[in-house]
Design brief:
alpha/beta, Rossmann fold, 7-stranded parallel β-sheet, 11 strands, binds D-galactaro-1,5-lactone
Length: 270
Amino acid sequence: MSSDSMRPVLLTGASGALGRILAAGLTRQGWTLRLTDIQPFPGPVPERAVFEFADLADVDGSRIRRLADGCGMILHFGGVSVERPFDEVIGPNIRGLYNIYEAARQTKARVLFASSNHTVGFHQRDEVLDVDCTFRPDGYYGLSKCYGELMGELYFAKHGIESVLVRIGSCFPEPRDARMLATWLSYDDLTSLVVCALKAENVGCIKIWGTSNNKRMTWWEDDDRGVIGWSPQSTADGYADALGGKTTGDDVVEAHQGGAYCRIDYARPE
Ligand code: 15L
């Protein structure tokens, strides 16, 4: 069942970079949002939105459940969003995921889970992957995103809770280096993806590569975007001349899709 624009949508991680883009973009398009984060919302809360603090890692997940009550969909952008030590990741990204999916189960909401390319970061850059490729996380953060995707699959198989699992590449205003010629996702394409996920009927549990229409460098193909009718309009291709040479010179970083995340604590003997 699609989420109608009369029902509120819960957005976690609302105070983060992508949360703020979505809060602004979705309310402009007429969606009513419940925003939540452990950090205060920077700047004025948009019209058609309310903000409430919540800690995803709370052992008692009742606050998230209350926030999700009556929502058609949970856009889950909260949690640790970069590589961090295990003890920092476990609360928000492991316990937090459980709280989100329990809230979805009890309220029958669809989940859009902001997963990451770091679920597959240790694949080589000369591979072209489809969404059912082997997980190769490049750190504890990427590993927590694998867990999130599997949580989505569990809750669909066992409870029929629908999920749109989006493996986001690099979502920034513009691509910043040669790697992002493959991984870039524009803010407009992110917003249109979320709107497609909100409007689609019966999605099941699907996986989508969250990148713009980058053709000059492509590592990822064959996903489920057709199920929600998403077609990204931006492309990093026009940045190829400016950024093609912007590499690090580090063998481990440049060999792998996850880039710099692969290098963190890397100790494998060559
Ligand atoms: C991510 O998953 C991060 O959230 C983001 O900050 C970037 O590092 C991005 O991946 C990337 O791989 O460029």
